[in-house]
Amino acid sequence: MPELPEVEVVKKSLNKKVQNLIIKKVKIYDSRLRYHINKNEINEIVGTRLKKVRRRSKFLLFFFDRDIIMLVHLGMTGKFFFVSHKNIKVKTSFYYNIDKKDQKHDRVVFFLNDKQKLIYNDVRKFGFIKFFNKKNINSSFHLNKLGPEPLTQDFNYNYFKKYIIRKNRSIKDILMDQRFLSGLGNIYVNEILFLSKVKPTRKVENLEDFELKKIVKIIKKILRRAIEFGGSSIKDFSSNNGKKGSFQQHFNVYGKKGECCSNANCKYKIIKTVISNRASFHCPKCQK
Q1: pLDDT of amino acid 225
Q2: pLDDT tier at 235 (50, 70, 90 boundaries)?
Q3: Could you give the CA distance from residue 43 to residue 57 in angstroms, rounded to a whole number?
Q4: Predicted TM-score of the model (pTM)
Q5: Under 8 Å between Cβ of 76 and 126
Q6: Residues recognised as catalytic
Q7: How far is CA 101 from CA 26, 117, 152, 241, 288, in A?
Q8: How far apart are CA 196 and CA 210, in angstroms?
Q9: Under CATH, what is the fold of the domain 157-282?
């Protein structure tokens, strides 16, 4: 599942392709996504202008005229293709190989002005498309309990310290909790904890202040770096214009069970455990 950096790159790509274009027609090929697509609601955007695309946590928000917002979650395999007026299909999302087999998984096609199209494609159909009025979007159960964005000033040491008071939970469990912090997922949490030199099973109540400050700093640093590298091409991700994300080339622990620790002065091997039903990777020497 794409995490914050991947969705951020997709957002930027979409804004370059579809911002300020007009929705001329919408065709639904398959409405049976995670949630059934409401045909009446989706037809409300016909004739409107797509003003901008924004990201909140791992969600994409499409802002249209008439105060309509389309909320999209990509699930495991959701992606967007853009088709130019010359009928050239380009990637704005995950798959870095375009072939004719993709077409059978097209779920919704948005016909735009100047004979352009935006295609929502989803193999496993775990993604969804919903519609909200602008004034109601923040009360949506998808968004209303999300924690702060990691790259904003709202996420800082003081917030972290206050949040974990009297909580007997592991640091990995806390970082994966979208109510605490929005957008992080398993890949980046593993990498963040390695660079912070904190074992994923450590209880947050036992963390020192300097460790909390370091974790905050590393989170911001690693997310900015991942966005800069275009996201991580785990399985299906690619950035705008179809370039593969390259951050996975810089992984230290994720998916590296049995490999030597990347720290030069460490000869220990990365071990894999399971925390809250998710794979966790760490160095038994470097992470305490």
Answers
A1: 87
A2: very low
A3: 26
A4: 0.89
A5: yes
A6: 2-3, 58, 278
A7: 22, 18, 40, 19, 47
A8: 10
A9: Helicase, Ruva Protein; domain 3 (1.10.8)
217 versus 241: which is more confidently predicted? 217
Torsion of CA 154, 65, 18, 59, to 10 degrees: 40
Question: Where do runs of H (alpha helix) occur along the chain?
Answer: 4-18, 39-43, 157-163, 171-176, 186-196, 209-228
119 and 109 Cβ atoms separated by less than 8 Å: yes
Residues in the chain: 288
Torsion sign across C-alpha atoms 143, 68, 64, 111: positive
- The C-alpha atoms of residue 179 and residue 176 are separated, in whole angstroms, by 9
All CATH 1.10.8.50 domain ranges of the chain, comma separated, are: 157-282
CA dist., res. 30 & res. 35, Å (int): 11
Domain 4-139 = CATH 3.30.9.10: no
Q: According to CATH, where is 3.20.190.10 located in the chain?
A: 4-139
